[in-house]
Amino acid sequence: MRRRLQQVSKYFSGKWIEMSTKTFCILLTTLLVSTILDAQLVLTNRAARLCQEKDYAGAREAITLALESEDEKNHPYAWYVSGFIHKEIYKALETGMRSSTARAAAVRDMEKSLNLDTGGEYRKMTCEALRYLATTYLNDALLMTRDMTPGAEQEPELVYSEFERIMAIADPRADLLPYRLEMLRKLAQAHYLLWEKNVTKRNHYDLAVGYYQQVLKVEPADCESNCNLAILYYNNGVHKIRMISSTTDMMDLILIQNECIELFRLALPLAETTFNSCPPRLDYYKAMMFIHRALGNEDLYDEYKSHSEELIRSGKLKY
Amino acid sequence: MRLSVIFGSLVLLFVCPAATLGQKVDESDPRAMIQANFLYQFAANCNWPAEVRKGKFTIAVMGQPAVFDHLAEKYGTKPIGNQTIDVVELAELPTIIPHILFIDKSRKSELAQALRDFRGKPTLLVTNWDGALQAGAHINFKAVDGNIRYELNVAALDEKKIAAGVKILQWKVD
């Protein structure tokens, strides 16, 4: 028997490798224990079957009982199944609900499963589920920036931070920088739109500038951020001029104008970076045209204008 | 039985270029707006002869629709003393006598005729090109380090009996 066991081999990575008796016994024991434990997970297995049959209410009831039972409540698979059921409930009933309790419960249960899974048996599939859940937080955070309202400015960032927190557990080596940068861009745009709705609210302008600057610190050639920050500075200058009224003193008129010229000068190098290093777009031409005109460079305004018109005529630039 | 799930790499369900979110460059002409603001300041800060301090206060604009638009929008209903401002856009020199006539550089050839038409009349001629002051304009906008400022022909104003106020004199450039 011993001799026969020693001859048992396993095909692994394209090569037959011989296992020692000791290794084989460990594997066999693990398999046996696992099978016995699985057999003991009666309620959990029932919940899993009901979930596959899309009977989520039944599945939730069964897994609740499982997690209350002494036999199953400390098993990582039971918590994984609970997380999975909540995830399915979220997908079926609560997708798009940013404060979904099912999703939060799914994350919580998956994390509990990971904590209990000291052998790492369920780790891979649990982390995959967590990655999916993290993605839904990311998407919600990005979508929330689209309809961000005054007073709720922190919400997208809070939801995004949940994405980062879950990803740190599910995939600690994942590079989250591209997602962070996308989030910063979207936050900047959201604050820009809030500022545009009420230009007297200076804080939205400052926040938008700050978010774009954070992106540019990491990606100095980022087309979108360079162009949008240029537009932000420029439009703020135009806005300040538009606010000049009959009650504005001559001295203030001159001081405001000086301030605006400084904003136009801040905008110009950003617009130039975009124009020179990004694929041509009408927005980039417009930024160059109008910033130059505001600085009194009318020849350059005409030059960019006629060039863009020429490209539009020849179909090389979309109007 | 085992429930398992396979997911690929993270997918952003929502990716949208900046342009679609409405961050667009403001296409208004800020230099025209500044010039319009100065025209109002000239109207408000000059001492006008008594004979034109009644009726409407007319500001006429030739050759620069953006200046006209901003003036009309911003100051069209504002008073100068007891007079209501009337902003008019002109294609050719007016037969009426405006208080202020702004001639844009695109219509610089009209200046000589305007000087003849309004000789001895209390009309302030404002321009925006190099050499206009020497050609007879009373106030001429000029670029100073990117800013719009103005130069003033005080002697020509005196002839018109239009007295530039302290604020106008204070901020003129040479």
Describe it:
By secondary structure, chain A is mostly helical. Chain A has a domain of 110 residues. Helix content of chain A is 75%, strand content 3%. Chain A has 14 helices and two strands. A two-stranded antiparallel sheet of chain A has the order 1-2. Chain B is an alpha/beta fold. In chain B, the strands form two sheets. Chain B has a seven-stranded mixed beta sheet, with helices on both faces. A two-stranded antiparallel sheet of chain B has the order 1-9. The chains are: A mainly alpha (319), B alpha/beta (174). Chains A and B meet through α3, α5, α7, α9 and α11 of A and α1, β8 and α6 of B.
Overview features:
heterodimer, A: 319 residues, mainly alpha, two-stranded antiparallel sheet, 75% helix, disordered N terminus, B: 174 residues, alpha/beta, Rossmann fold, 23% strand, globular
In short:
Chain A has helices spanning 2-7, 21-40, 42-52, 56-68, 76-94, 101-116, 123-146, 155-170, 177-197, 202-218, 223-242, 250-277, 282-294, 298-313; strands spanning 9-12, 15-18. Chain A is mainly alpha-helical and 319 residues long. The model of chain B is unreliable at 14-20 (pLDDT under 50).
Strand order of the largest sheet of chain B: 3-4-2-5-6-7-8
Give the SSE string of chain B.
HEEHEEEHEHEEHEH
Q: Please state the oligomeric state of the protein chains shown.
A: heterodimer
Report the span from N to C terminus of chain B: 91 Å
Output the CATH topology of chain B. Rossmann fold
Q: Overall 3D geometry of chain A? A: elongated
Span from first to last CA of chain A? 81 Å
Mean pLDDT over all positions of chain A: 89
Major sheet of chain A: order of its strands? 1-2
Helix content of chain B: 25-40%
